[in-house]
Predict the 3D structure of the following.
Amino acid sequence: MAKVGTAGVRAPAWRGGFGRLWSAAVISRFGDALRATALPLLAVRLTDDPLVIASVTACAHLPWLLFGLLGGAVADRVDQRRAMWAVDTARGFLVAAFALAVGLGQASVPLLLALAFLLTALQTLFDNASTALLPSLVDAEALGGANARLMTGQQLAGGLLAGPFVPLLLGLGAAVPFAADAGTYLLAAALVASLRVRPPEREPRPAGSTLRAEIGEGLRHLWRDRVLRPICLATLLCNIGMGALIATLVLHVTRWLHAGDTEFAAAMTVYAVGSIGGGFLAQRIARRVGRARALLLGGTVQSASLLLMGVVQHLAALFVGMLLLGSMNMVWNVNQITLMQERSPAPLVGRIASAFRTASVSGAPAGALLGGAAARAAGLNAPALLAALLFAFAVAALIPAGRADVPVGVPQGGAATARAAS
């Protein structure tokens, strides 16, 4: 399930299930990107109320706050492969029904809100199950490479390839992007269902064990881990900073830099390109300095990039900053999730992953509000400076994790995991 690459580092083998999981993830992300682009365009056709349009985005975040921890607990109870293909099948039929409503002229704002909420509610189970399943498909030494390939493929499909397709699909009809998204869900479900994986061995749950108690067990393990606890805090701070930046970036570009929509789109593309490059750098950096120190490096570079964007009033500074932000964000994500998988006992991976994701999601809307307030009070470059400060705090929070870091490839406390049967 893994092959030895350069410098003796084990890379994930495409056979044995990882190739199918990678394909399912990339295909699904491509469809998600189609829908995410088409949904706001449909919303503005149905209403011109900014609050109502913003509510569609809010409904896509709310389920993580309501069900994120629950989704992790459920993922640790069930067969993750079955949970994933069942969820993707359900999401495929939901989006197909929505596409039919759009095609028949029956789309409405309440229907948009319901779709956004339900899809994300199902995603809370899918994402946590996916994180918990990966260690069953690749050797522990290949986890970092597997995460890098997954995230890079998803960024390539969703960040670069999907965008140009949306105008073409919309030209065929308003329902077509949603129909395509439904197809990607169903194809991904079929790929995941074809995996042959032995579920991890779990000790029998104590009599009377509840989901609430199991969620508490995962949170206690996260709190007691000297590496994962500061990383979770740092991730929350970073996501508050990114929420502040992203929510106001269009104003930063068009008002503070006096640029146009083309430059704004170019900045987002540069960020996506940087993310893809970061996917190739993540493992190399971790091999040299360790995973926790890779996070320290990534956070430091991101803080400096945000400071550059907030101080230098020039498009070149924006593009350099977005390129570095994207690349170091991927370095951060790959090494964060790999550390979490390595240091979590197999029966707790879903619950610990859900705590990380819930912290991430809760930070984004809080940051958006802070960014808007900062832009109003201190100027349109203030959100970038605020984000730089929050990233600096995140780096400071990571110092204990950096001190406890160990070289890549050394076991870090996670329980033994089951392997693919094929």
Remarks:
- The chain has 13 helices and two strands.
